């Protein structure tokens, strides 16, 4: 069973036990539907051409979000997953719930919006594809009481808008997730099949996923003076909100029993601990914007810490280094293009260029200058100046 069904089962088992103690003849009411309703819905979804067309169009030309770690993202590089917990606190959760109510949103939508922008900070990209865990319980009477495996993880593609305020960003995320509701019941297996992908050594579509956890049904646990019922404070009752997955970073936000905790599962071989802590700090700062500064413009520089700004402006500008004297800077840059063509070479605000893209633009500029009749020496000097700013020796 999936974790939500585990929570529902434990709640029903506890409450039935208490009822039987007071009323030995108590018989639980039979559900009007069964797991069969879910199977039927899945068959119907597979035959819906509108859903197929949506996923084909939505993910056309998508870019995989590459991790900033030390590995390649292949299955054979993954070691045992490590877990990192970060306490956000019930006070922030309450403030966010008030903001969500004010802006006609929800806590899980705000958290997903902060998560997506966090990924943008991580990748310096505005076109993000990530996984989202959804609960596809059957839409029928008693659907919330049926026990089974209903979780599905779907790809979500977010093209983060530029030049907007945080309030508009919240509205944008709400609109995207509400649209997704119409199509999220199709299984990930079917979505991958639609796209024709057959990855043999890595996950299809994405390596990171978001999971919002709130087992609110546990609040319905009945208490009994003679029979101890575990609660959130004594730590006896534990219903895991997540399990091991094939993804490389699982970002879980748990709001069960009024807690507000980020739990991240990750492969330490692929992603360093420093990156994970940095992700949590980005996530929390964006949430603060949703509470206190919704009229402010969305700006990466407002999310970066003072320490990071110091590193970028001071430490990263200390670029004195040795290099092979027999090679020109242009030669070194060409070598770097061949070595890491898809690595980011230049970043400005919300735009980024890879080494391959930058090299292509430099040659286009050279051809344009030749066409204008300028001397070859001038052309070479312009290319050298442009590339020398970004070469990675």
Overall structural domain count? 2
CATH class of the largest domain: Alpha Beta
What is the number of helical segments per DSSP (H or I, 4+ residues)? 12
How confident overall, as mean pLDDT?
A: 77
Order of helix and strand elements from N to C terminus: HHHEHHEEHHEEEHHHEEHH
Instruction: Give the C-alpha Rg.
Output: 26 Å
Per CATH, what is the topology of the largest domain? Chloramphenicol Acetyltransferase
- Spatial sequence of strands, sheet with the most strands: 1-6-5-4-2-3
The total count of strands amounts to: 8
Overall 3D form: globular
Helix content: 40-55%
Query: Strand percentage, roughly?
Result: 5-15%
Distance between the termini: 52 Å
Largest sheet, described in full? Answer: 6 strands, mixed
Give the CATH H-level superfamily of the largest domain: Nonribosomal peptide synthetase, condensation domain
CATH architectural label of the largest domain: 2-Layer Sandwich
Structural class: alpha/beta
Q: Low-confidence stretches at least 5 residues in length (pLDDT < 50)?
A: 217-221, 225-241
Please provide a written account of the structure.
The protein is an alpha/beta fold. It folds into two domains: 3-218 and 239-307, Nonribosomal peptide synthetase, condensation domain (Chloramphenicol Acetyltransferase), CATH 3.30.559.30; 329-388, Rossmann fold (3-Layer(aba) Sandwich), CATH 3.40.50.980. The protein contains twelve helices and eight strands. The protein has a six-stranded mixed sheet, covered by helices on one side. Strands 7-8 form a two-stranded antiparallel ribbon. Helix 4 crosses helix 8. The N and C termini lie far apart (52 Å).
């Amino acid at each position: 069973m999936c974790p939500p069904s585990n929570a529902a089962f434990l709640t029903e088992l506890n409450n039935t036990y208490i009822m039987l103690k007071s009323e030995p003849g108590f018989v639980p009411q039979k559900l009007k539907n069964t797991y069969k309703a879910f199977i039927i819905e899945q068959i119907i979804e597979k035959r819906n051409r509108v859903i197929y067309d949506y996923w084909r169009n939505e993910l056309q030309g998508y870019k995989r979000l590459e991790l900033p770690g030390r590995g390649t993202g292949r299955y054979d590089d993954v070691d045992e997953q490590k877990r990192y917990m970060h306490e956000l606190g019930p006070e922030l959760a309450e403030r966010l719930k008030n903001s969500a109510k004010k802006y006609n949103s929800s806590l899980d939508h705000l958290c997903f919006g902060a998560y997506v922008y966090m990924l943008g900070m991580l990748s310096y990209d505005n076109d993000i594809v990530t996984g989202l865990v959804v609960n596809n319980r059957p839409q029928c009477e008693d659907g919330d009481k049926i026990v089974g495996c209903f979780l599905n993880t779907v790809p979500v593609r977010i093209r983060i808008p530029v030049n907007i305020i945080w309030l508009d960003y919240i509205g944008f995320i709400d609109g995207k997730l509400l649209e997704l509701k119409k199509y999220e019941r199709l299984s990930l297996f079917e979505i991958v099949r639609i796209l024709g992908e057959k990855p043999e050594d890595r996950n299809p579509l994405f390596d990171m996923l978001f999971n919002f956890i709130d087992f609110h049904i546990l609040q319905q646990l009945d208490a009994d003076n003679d029979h101890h019922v575990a609660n959130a404070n004594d730590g006896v009752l534990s219903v895991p909100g997540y399990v091991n997955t094939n993804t490389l970073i699982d970002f879980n936000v748990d709001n069960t029993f009024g807690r507000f905790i980020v739990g991240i599962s990750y492969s330490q071989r692929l992603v360093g601990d420093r990156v994970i802590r940095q992700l949590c700090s980005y996530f929390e700062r964006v949430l603060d914007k949703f509470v206190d500064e919704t009229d402010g413009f969305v700006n990466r520089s407002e999310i970066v810490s003072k320490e990071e700004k110091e590193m970028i402006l001071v430490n990263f500008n200390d670029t004195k280094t040795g290099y092979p004297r027999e090679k020109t800077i242009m030669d070194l840059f060409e070598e770097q293009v061949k070595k890491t063509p898809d690595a980011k070479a230049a970043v400005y605000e919300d735009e980024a260029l890879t080494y391959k893209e930058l090299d292509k633009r430099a040659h286009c500029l050279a051809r344009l200058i030749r066409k204008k009749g300028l001397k070859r020496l001038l052309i070479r000097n312009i290319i050298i100046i442009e590339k020398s700013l970004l070469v990675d020796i």
